[in-house]
């Protein structure tokens, strides 16, 4: 089996790794360098606790978390990219992007407990004990936050680099960087490969489109385009700081987590809504300055710290907000994986598409989230 995976983000890396590990001859075609797309600019929270209003999305998200644990354990001491310091979410905090869990917070805790999800309510004293660097009244005396002691995040560039390096070294992955794909090649209702921008034809028995927000640009035909509803996000990075923030913080004003080396990564949903595509990703961007100001309010010793770097990215969100992973009706040998929350589910998508492509066994977790929903009328 010869497969082409388009896109060297977190999803393309996971799919290329699992397919080549299972014996497929895989070419990974990436337009630029690997890990340069949306996966580079992500809060990268890995959890299932935001999807509890939908049984199927919760089940999928749990599978995503479990697959990350499995993947890092397979890499032993080189599996360093999945960090689980715990997450603290203030009850007043906004939810991540397209969370389905927007009911009253008491309901959220009750439901999490019923599901057996590791989560506990904490008050102001416990918050001060867990995170002594925060403003003493970061939570009001009668306030409540949820502590997810087992949640964490993925350092996506490290995950991508480690998977691709292992696949190249151990399973002969053919990595083609600076190889943008121009279009999908189709014959008798089946994908037969791709043509690159330089005109090279790469033939394959399976083509997997993992180009994220660019997924429709690489196919060269509106017939197989996935309707997308992308949104823009900004992340600001502090310089290396000597301040200990131990966990991932999802406060009402700013989300904070370590970015390694003493740096902190900052973002906020309300500030993302102020962005425009013309904006330049610079440390003096008003949203970055505001994020730094909010950090100083939350952590008094960091007042006056400014953003050292800023990145902006477009979220690859299918219309309706739900994941879109699987084959397209009427087109054989072609699969697509485009989803928000793609860090969360990336390791699982690698397993799911491997089993579907090589063994004809689609993952039941993806049954409600397949591309057919966009193509029913045409099929
Ligand atoms: C601000 C922000 C916060 C987020 N927070 C979270 C979170 O907390 N948890 C979570 O799970 N998700 C989060 N996400 C979403 C998550 O980051 C994405 O869903 C995920 O990174 C998508 O990965 P991908 O591999 O599909 O896309 P990408 O990482 O964008 O990879 C696609 C690749 O395709 C390549 N490509 C493009 N065109 C071509 C071409 N013509 N030929 C070949 N290659 C091509 C690109 O160069 C790129 O490397 C967040 C996103 C943003 C922006």
Report on the structure:
- The chain has 379 residues and is of the alpha+beta class.
- The chain folds into 2 domains: 168 residues, FAD/NAD(P)-binding domain; 151 residues, D-Amino Acid Oxidase, subunit A, domain 2 (D-Amino Acid Oxidase, Chain A, domain 2, 2-Layer Sandwich), CATH 3.30.9.
- It has 8 helices and 20 strands.
- The strands form 4 sheets. It has an 8-stranded mixed sheet with strand order 6-7-5-15-16-17-14-18. Strands 9-2-1-13-20-19 form a 6-stranded mixed sheet.
- The protein is globular and about 65 Å long.
Brief description of this entry?
The chain is of the alpha+beta class and about 375 residues long.
The largest pleated sheet is described as: 8 strands, mixed
Give the N-terminus to C-terminus distance in angstroms. Answer: 27 Å
* Rg (CA only): 21 Å
- Discrete helix count: 8
**What is the total number of structural domains?**
2
Low-pLDDT regions:
96-102
Say which molecules are bound, naming each kind only once: flavin-adenine dinucleotide
Class computed from helices, strands and strand pairing = alpha+beta
Order of helices and strands: EHEEHEEHEHEEHEEEEEEEEEHHEEEH
What is the residue-averaged pLDDT? 94
CATH structural fold name of the largest domain: FAD/NAD(P)-binding domain
Q: Could you name the CATH class of the largest domain? A: Alpha Beta
Extended strand count: 20
| Binned strand content | 15-25%
| Residues in helices, as a percent range | 25-40%
CATH superfamily of the largest domain: FAD/NAD(P)-binding domain
Annotated CATH architecture of the largest domain: 3-Layer(bba) Sandwich
* Main sheet: strand order: 6-7-5-15-16-17-14-18
Shape: globular
């Amino acid at each position: 089996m010869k497969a082409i995976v388009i896109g060297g983000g977190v999803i393309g890396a996971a799919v290329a790794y699992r397919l080549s590990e299972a014996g497929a001859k895989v070419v990974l075609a990436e337009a630029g360098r690997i890990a340069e797309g949306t996966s580079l600019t992500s809060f990268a929270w890995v959890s299932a606790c935001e999807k509890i209003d939908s049984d199927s999305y919760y089940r999928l998200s749990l599978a995503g978390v479990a697959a990350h644990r499995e993947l890092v354990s397979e890499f032993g001491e080189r599996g360093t990219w999945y960090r689980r310091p715990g997450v603290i979410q203030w009850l007043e905090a906004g939810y991540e992007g397209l969370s389905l869990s927007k009911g009253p917070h008491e309901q959220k805790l009750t439901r999490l407990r019923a599901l057996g999800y590791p989560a506990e309510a904490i008050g102001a004293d416990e918050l001060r004990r867990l995170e002594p660097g925060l403003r003493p009244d970061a939570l009001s005396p009668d306030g409540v936050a949820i502590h997810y002691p087992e949640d964490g995040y993925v350092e996506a560039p490290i995950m991508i680099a480690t998977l691709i390096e292992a696949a190249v070294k151990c399973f002969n992955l053919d990595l083609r960087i600076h190889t943008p794909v121009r279009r999908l090649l189709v014959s008798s209702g089946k994908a037969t490969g791709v043509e690159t921008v330089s005109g090279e034809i790469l033939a394959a028995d399976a083509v997997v489109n993992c180009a994220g927000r660019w997924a429709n640009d690489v196919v060269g035909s509106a017939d197989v385009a996935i309707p997308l509803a992308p949104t823009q996000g900004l992340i600001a990075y502090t310089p290396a700081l000597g301040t200990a923030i131990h966990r991932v913080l999802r406060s009402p004003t700013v989300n904070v987590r370590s970015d390694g080396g003493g740096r902190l990564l900052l973002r906020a949903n309300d500030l993302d809504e102020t962005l425009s595509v013309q904006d330049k990703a610079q440390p003096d961007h008003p949203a970055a300055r505001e994020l730094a100001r909010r950090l100083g309010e939350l952590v008094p010793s960091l007042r006056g710290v400014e953003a050292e770097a800023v990145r902006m990215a477009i979220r690859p969100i299918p219309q309706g907000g739900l994941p879109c992973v699987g084959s397209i009706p009427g087109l054989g040998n072609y699969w697509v994986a485009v989803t928000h929350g793609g860090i969360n589910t990336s390791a699982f998508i690698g397993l799911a598409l491997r089993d579907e492509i090589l063994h004809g066994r689609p993952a039941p977790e993806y049954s409600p989230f397949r591309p057919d929903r966009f193509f029913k009328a045409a099929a």
